[in-house]
Design goal:
Residues 31-205 form the Metallo-beta-lactamase domain. InterPro entries: LACTB2_WH, Metallo-B-lactamas, RibonucZ/Hydroxyglut_hydro, Sec-metab_biosynth-thioest, WH-like_DNA-bd_sf. The protein is of the alpha/beta class. The chain has two domains: 10-219, Metallo-beta-lactamase, Chain A (4-Layer Sandwich); 225-286, Arc Repressor Mutant, subunit A, CATH 1.10.10. It has six helices and 14 strands. It is elongated. The model has no long low-confidence stretch (mean pLDDT 94).
Length: 287
């Protein structure tokens, strides 16, 4: 991994795009959330990040008094959207992008809204194909549900760059956590991206993805491999989610065990929906 830039530093990464790294590195956010500023004379801000005073100040410095046409949100997890409120107050810009709704009820004891920004309230919800534009730049929303039910990516038409949020990241595969996260939707969204010809991805976490179609093909293969593991293990014997994680993720960082369990559950729910697996007395089995 290349050394990440210092937090709070405005880093130009192409003529229309500047990146500012938030100071919220963790096992789930890698080096932190990356806020992207698009435009020259007027700008859009994509995923302003956590509610952190130092990051607010860094964004104001990077914007440098330019008009902010929109604050765009790929999804309203707490590491992506909370700073939007302070930024909107400071600039007068509307908050636009993903809807605030969260799908609930998977029966596995998940805290449905634990990861979400409960105060998120967009001024305008964008759907697939909706656009936001300024002087010399156009951003088009692309529906990419899966990591969350309302996840969006944003395509910069002038340079064929895609801001992929947490759907495709530059350091790890996305966590799919039911009930709001959905494995079937996630895989379908990857297929949508595979059919596109974007030049580069700028994710919410991790380095830029310079060969995006190759990475997306690999991610699809990885998920199919995980599904195959689950089917083989359940064919041998019914198992709980915890037992599957123990067999599938040998040597896993204990801090990530919960995320692994959520993604395994997402696979199981997808298999159940397709008539391959079923729940029975606290465990899962092949039908």
């Amino acid at each position: 991994m290349a050394k990440p830039p210092p937090t709070g530093l405005a880093v130009p990464i192409e003529p229309l795009v500047t990146r500012v790294l938030a100071p919220n590195a963790s096992a789930y956010t890698y080096t932190g959330t990356q806020t992207h500023i698009v435009g020259r004379d007027d700008v859009a801000v994509i995923d302003p990040g956590p509610n952190d005073a130092a990051h607010h100040d860094a964004l104001r410095v990077a914007i440098a008094g330019r008009p902010v046409r929109a604050i765009l949100i790929t999804h309203h997890h707490r590491d992506h959207s909370p700073a939007a409120r302070a930024l909107a107050e400071a600039t007068g810009a509307p908050i636009v992008g993903a809807a605030a709704t969260v799908r609930g009820g998977d029966g596995e004891g998940a805290a449905v809204d634990a990861a979400f920004d409960r105060d998120y309230a967009p001024d305008r919800v964008l759907t697939d194909g909706d656009g936001v534009s300024g002087d010399g730049w156009t951003l088009t929303a692309l529906a990419t549900p899966g990591h969350t039910s309302q996840h969006l990516a944003f395509a910069l038409e002038e340079s064929k760059a895609l801001f992929s949020g947490d759907h495709v990241m530059g350091w790890a595969t996305s966590v799919i956590s039911p009930p709001d996260g959905d494995m079937g939707e996630y895989l379908a969204s990857l297929e949508t991206l595979l059919a596109r010809d974007d030049r580069i991805y700028y994710p919410g976490h991790g380095e830029a993805v310079e060969r995006p179609q190759r990475l997306v093909r690999g991610m699809l293969g990885h998920r199919k491999q995980r599904e195959g593991q689950i089917v083989r293990l359940l064919t041998a014997a019914p198992r709980t989610v915890a037992a599957l994680v123990e067999r599938m993720y040998v040597g896993l960082d204990p801090r990530l065990a919960g995320a692994a369990a959520r993604s395994v559950l997402a696979h199981l729910i997808d298999l159940e929906r397709r008539g391959v697996a079923a729940r029975e007395e606290g465990a899962w089995r092949i039908i």
